[in-house]
Structures are given as C-alpha cells and as structure tokens.
Automatic annotation (TrEMBL):
Residues 19-260 form the NADP-dependent oxidoreductase domain. Substrate binds at H111. PANTHER family: 2,5-DIKETO-D-GLUCONIC ACID REDUCTASE, NADP-DEPENDENT OXIDOREDUCTASE DOMAIN-CONTAINING PROTEIN. GO terms for molecular function: oxidoreductase activity, acting on the CH-OH group of donors, NAD or NADP as acceptor. InterPro entries: AKR (IPR020471), AKR5G (IPR044500), Aldo/ket_reductase_CS (IPR018170), NAD(P)_OxRdtase_dom_sf (IPR036812), NADP_OxRdtase_dom (IPR023210). Belongs to the aldo/keto reductase family. The active site is at Y53. Keywords: NADP, Oxidoreductase. This is Aldo/keto reductase. The record marks K78 as: Lowers pKa of active site Tyr. Pfam families: Aldo_ket_red.
Length: 281
C-alpha cells in the first residue's frame, strides 16, 4: 500500500484499488460532477456510486470531462431493492451503464440483502459471464445472508461492501469473508462524522500528526479493508488520499479495535431484508 494506485487482487484476479471515492447522498448534479472530477484530478482511480444515489449520470459526465481514460478507472454501481429479481436486475444494469456513459462496470453489487437476492445474483452471474461486468459482489450482507446466497451461487462474490468503522468491526464477518476470499469494503468509514468525537482517535491524531480521518482510513487499509470516504470539499478530498506516508503501530491498531461496540450509524441489514421494498435510506 504505497500510494493511491495501490490495489488488492480479488478472488477472480481483478485489481481493485484500496482507496475509493464515495458519492452517497451527493445528488446535486454540479456538485457531483465537480467533486468526482476533483477526486480523479488528485489521483483517485476508484469511483463508487449506485442507482439509488440518483447521481450515475453526473458521475458519468465527470468521468468523461476529467480526461482520465475509462480503462484507468475502477467504476462501481449497485442494483437497488426495487430492481431485484432476474429480469429486473438485467434491465437495471442496462439503465445504469447508459446513465454512466459506459459499456461495462468494474464491479456491480447487490445493494442490500433481499428475499429475491438469489435471483438477482443469477442475473449478475450472467452479466459477469458475458464480460459486461469485471467483478460482482454484494453490499450489506451478513454471514447469514452470505451463507444463503452461497447455497445456490455458481460464483462466489468478489466483494462485500458493508458499514465498517472502529465502532462496528464485525469480526465474525471479517473471518467469514477471509475464509471465502471475499474482499471486505467499508462504507461510512468515518461514521458520518461521528468518528471525530472519539477521544482515542483525537489522541492518535496528535501522536501521528495526522487528522482523525487519516488515522481511521489508514486503520481500514491496515485491516485489509477497502475504503471509500466521501467528501465534496477539495481540501478534504485530497486530505483523504494522504494516508500512504505513515503506518499505525500494532499497539495502536489494537487500541482502535478495542473501540468496537457493534454500533451502527446506518440501517441494520436484517431489518432491511425483512421489509426491503419500503426501505429508502
């Protein structure tokens, strides 16, 4: 993990950059375009979006206007709950790539576990076999959801993108994903801003002369978890990339792990699974 171009190798051999740029809750078209262009300008080569974010078209415009060749960008999107099921997923994929202005995705994820996620996975497997998607995976899947999916899956997911931060580590899920060679990825690594209130992280920020954001993002990478911080502020977009010039000690890594309280700032996947089509967060 020497720089922003550093990558992990997924279970199918595809290279996925450790650090990505998130776009959740950024819907204003101009803001999306400018922030994604800024991210690409400072060196990000991994952009994460979703149909539910309602910004795929703006992300596509930003990529085109950036001048960065499409093949140099690891582009991710997700199929939403209302589009789950075999045929609807195939249609949703076509809609997403049209909005993004591309003919393939580097990674396509099932956004949340859903009673139809096995059918949805069959659609992703078809698209993967047709080389429309370079890698396929899931998001917000617990161990139980993964076990359920794997009962009938031909292809093991390459990625599981979940809420992950020092107060929600999910060791059982980490172990399961390692066993099955599923790359864990963190959304909301900064707990939607709540991470800045943690005293230990304030102390480590002073010790390493790095911001709290940089401490947490570096911790993610040393935990071997891909991470996708989000910002629309140019200075913070750049700040979040400056995590490759230091390393947290084993002692401090362990101290951060002791913060775990199984505390979510997002929704519980089990609750979403129970009522997926009315979920809108």
């Amino acid at each position: 993990m020497q720089n922003i171009k550093s990558y992990t190798i997924l279970n199918n051999g595809v290279k996925m950059p450790w650090l990505g740029f998130g776009t959740y809750k950024v819907e204003n078209k101009d803001t999306v375009i400018e922030s994604v262009k800024e991210a690409l300008k400072v060196g990000y080569c991994h952009i994460d979006t979703a149909s539910f974010y309602n910004n795929e078209e703006a992300v596509g415009i930003a990529i085109k206007e950036s001048g960065v060749p499409r093949e140099k960008i690891f582009l991710v999107s997700k199929v939403w709950n209302l589009d789950q099921g075999y045929e609807k997923t195939l249609e949703a994929f076509e809609t997403s790539i049209k909005k993004l202005g591309t003919d393939y995705l580097d990674l396509y994820l099932i956004h949340w576990p859903h009673p139809l996620h096995k059918e949805t996975w069959k659609a992703l497997e078809k698209l993967y076999k047709e080389k429309r998607i370079k890698s396929i995976g899931v998001s917000n899947f617990t161990v139980n959801h993964l076990n359920d999916l794997l009962e009938d899956a031909e292809i093991v997911p390459m990625v599981n993108q979940v809420e992950f931060h020092p107060l929600l580590i999910q060791n059982e899920l980490i172990d399961f994903c390692k066993k099955h060679k599923i790359q864990l990825e963190a959304w909301s690594p900064l707990m939607r801003g709540k991470i800045f209130e943690v005293p230990l992280l304030q102390e480590l920020s002073k010790k390493y002369r790095k911001t709290i954001s940089q401490i947490v993002l570096r911790w993610d990478l040393q935990m071997r978890v891909v991470t996708i911080p989000k910002s629309t502020t140019p200075s913070r977009i750049k700040e979040n990339t400056e995590i490759f010039d230091f390393e947290l000690s084993k002692e401090d890594m362990n101290k951060i792990q002791q913060l775990d309280k199984s505390l979510r700032v997002g929704s519980d996947p089990n609750e979403v699974y129970a009522c997926p089509d009315t979920f809108n967060k």
